[in-house]
Amino acid sequence: MKFSREQIRSAMRLYAVTDRAWLRGRTLGQMVEDCLKGGATFVQLREKEAGDREFLQVAREVKAVTDRYGVPLVIDDNLTIAQAVDADGVHIGQTDLPCDLARKILGPDKIIGVSTKTIAQAREAEAQGADYLGTGAAFFTTTKQIDGTMSMAEMKALCESVSIPVVAIGGIHPENLLELEASGVDGAAVVSAIFAQDDVLAATRELDELTRRLWK
C-alpha cells in the first residue's frame, strides 16, 4: 500500500517504536495490537539484538497486525527484512545505508524515514528522497542512546528547514508531551511510554488523547 505525503504526515501523530524488553509473558504482536487499538498511528519495528531468523519471525507477526489496522509499518535499519515481509518501508540512521541508495533498492512507493539532528542532515535526507524525519532527543531518555537533547527552538528550526514531516523522539511521556507544541514537529515517537507499561492499551489511549490536542 502506498501512502501519500499527507497520510504520512498524519501518521506521525502517535508513532510507536517497539521494544521487546518488557514483554512479561505477552507477544509483541499482542502488544502492538493493543497500542493500535489505543490509537497509535504508525509503528516502527526495532530489533537491535535479534538474528535474522528471529527478526523475520517477529516482523511477520507484527506486519499481520498492522495490516489489519491499515497502519504503516517500517523496519528499523534492515532493508532485507523490510523487503522480506513487504513492510511499508524502513527507518535509517546517520550511520546506516544512505537514503538515496535505500530509495534505489526499495523503489518509489516505500516509506523511508531518516534520523536527523541538524538542519544540514535534514536537508540532505529530504534531497535524497526521505519521506519523513525523526529528530531528538526531545527530552532526556535512557531507552535509546541519543547524544544530548535538542531544544524546542532547535527542533522548530529543523522542521522549518524542510517540507517533509518530522516526528520527535526521546523521553516523551504523558507528563511532557504537550511541551512539544513549541517544537513544530508533526508528532511524537514513543517507546517506553507504551511498551514498558503494564496496560499498553490504556497507556496508548492516554497518549492518543494528548497528541490529538496538538495535532488534529
Explain how this protein is built:
The protein is of the alpha/beta class. The protein contains 9 helices and 8 strands. The protein has an 8-stranded parallel beta barrel, surrounded by 6 helices. Helix 2 packs across helix 9. The longest helix is centred in the N-terminal third of the chain and has 18 residues.
The ordered H/E elements are HEHEHEHEHEHEHEEHH
Number of DSSP helices? 9
* Strand line-up across the major sheet: 1-2-3-4-5-6-7-8
Counting DSSP E segments of at least 2 residues, the number of strands comes to 8
Could you tell me the radius of gyration in angstroms? 16 Å
Determine the oligomeric state from the structure.
single chain
Helix/strand structural class: alpha/beta
Major pleated sheet: 8 strands, parallel, barrel
Mean pLDDT: 95
Unreliable sequence segments:
none
Principal-axes geometry comes out as globular
The level of helicity is 25-40%
Strand content: 15-25%
Provide a compact summary of the structure.
This protein has 216 residues and is α/β, with parallel strands linked by helices. It contains 9 helices and 8 strands.
Overview features:
single chain; 216 residues; alpha/beta; eight-stranded parallel β-barrel; 9 helices; 8 strands
